[in-house]
Amino acid sequence: MTSSLPAATPFDGQPTARVERDGVRYTLLGTAHVSRTSVEAVQAAIDTGAFDTIAVELDPQRLQALTDPEALARMDLVKVLREGKTALFAANLALAVYQRRLAEQLGIEPGAELKAAALQARERGLNLALIDRDVGLTFKRASQNLGWWGRAKLGGGLIAALFGDEAVGEQEIEKLKEGDLLEASFGEFAEDNPALYETVIAERDRYMAARLRQTAADGAREVLAVVGAGHLQGLARQLREDTVPADAVRAELEAVKQKSSIPWFTIVLAVVLLGGFAWGFWHGGPKVGAGLLLQWVLVTGVLGAIGCILAGGHPLSILAAFVASPITPLHPALASGTVSALVEAWVRKPTYADFMALRDDTQTLRGWYRNRVSRILLNFFLTSLGTAIGVWTGGLSMLGKLIG
Fold first, then answer.
1. How many CA atoms lie less than 13 Å away from 235 in the CB half-sphere?
2. From CA 386, how far away is CA 369, in angstroms rounded?
3. Helix or strand run (H / E) with residue 390
C-alpha cells in the first residue's frame, strides 16, 4: 500500500514530494544541479535531523569524481585500452569537460548539492545510498537503443563536447535547472530522440525508485532523496506504483545486450578479402595477386598511419598503426587504434601531472596535443578512423578490379 503526502518542510522553496511505502517515508527533494539555493536546501533538510538515510542521484564513480579530484590520476590507462573501455572513458571525459565549462561560467560546481548531501551524510554518521545507475551502463544501454546513425550522432556530440570551448547557452542552463545533468550533456539530441530519452531519464527514474525501495532492507525508515528536479515526478510515480520486486527491476535495467558471439562483419570481410586475393593469384597470376595484396596493405596501412600522425603520435606509434591497420580488421577483438594507443602509452607514459591537468587541457585543441592522456585518446580514435576509411577504400577498390 502506498500513498503520496504533501510536503511540509523548512525547504518549501524547492520542489518536493513525499511517498510512504512498506513502512518507510521517502522525502524527495528536487534540486537544480547548478544552484546555490539547492545546496542550501539540502543543508536545511539534513539539519532538521529527521532522516536516518540520505539517498543521492549518484553512482560510486560519479561520487568519487566529485569528492576525490585525484582519482583520475590513479587510473590505469593501459588497462582501459586493453579492456576496450576507451570509448567509455572518452564519454566520461566529455561529461567532465561539460561540467567544467558550467563551473567556470556559473561559479558553482555542477552537482554541488549532491556532493554536499553525500558529505553531510558521512559526517553525521547517516546511511548513504547511491541510487543512480552506473553511468557506464547508461551510456551502453543508450548506445544499444540507437541505430547506427543515432550512435554516430551521439559519438559526434560527445566529440563536440570534448573539443568545444564555447560558453554554455542560456537555454541549456535553464533546462539544466529543471532537468538532468546527463540529459543536458546530450543537448537537443536527447529531446529529439525518444530512445535516448527513455534510457537517460525514464529508465533511471524506475531504477532509482527500485534502489530507494531497497533501503528498507538496510533499516531505513526516514529517507531524504536528493535528485534533479527533472526526475521528481517520474521517481515519485515509480516509487508509488511499481510492484515488480526491486531486485528484478535492477537486473532488468542493468542488463546489456551481449554482442553476437559470431563476428559476422569480420567473417564476411575476411572471406571477401581472402577470396579476392586467392582469385587474383589463381586467375591473374602472382603479379595480379601480389598487386591486390600490396594495395590492401598500403591503403589501410597508410590511412591508419595518417590518422596516427594527425593525432601527434610517436614514430613508433605511427609504425604500429601502419603494421596493425591491414591486419586488425580481420580480428574481431582487436583494433588498430588500440594497438597504436598502447604503443603511445608505452613510449610516452602519462605522468601524474597529465592526469591532474586533463580536464583543463581538454578545454583547448592545443591542450589536447600537449597532454599525454588526451593525445593517447586522439591516437586511438584517429588511427581507428583512418583504418576504417582504408578498409572501405581498399575493399571497394579491390572489388572494382575483380569485377572489372
1. 34
2. 18
3. helix 372-403
Beta-strand (E) ranges in 213-274?
Answer: 222-228
Q: Please tell me whether residue 276 adopts helix, strand or coil conformation.
A: helix
For 218, other C-beta atoms within 10 Å of its C-beta total 10
Least confident window among 27-31, 44-48, 193-197, 398-402: 193-197
Q: pLDDT digit string (tens) for 249-263?
A: 999 999 887 765 666
- CA atoms of 328 and 273, how far apart (whole Å): 13
Contacts of 52 (CB under 8 A, 6+ apart): 126, 127, 219, 220, 221, 222, 223
Q: Which residues pair with 3 in a beta bridge?
A: 20
The pair phi, psi for residue 224, each rounded to 5°, is -105, 120
Record the cell numbers describing residue 73, joined without a space: 590520476
Stated pTM of the model: 0.71
Which amino acid makes up residue 113? E
**Among the listed residues 365, 40, 33, the one whose alpha carbon sits nearest the alpha carbon of residue 172:** 33
372-403 helix and 86-106 helix, angle to the nearest 10 degrees:
130
Identify residue 160 by its one-letter amino acid code.
A
How high is the pLDDT of residue 51?
95
Residue 257 DSSP code: P
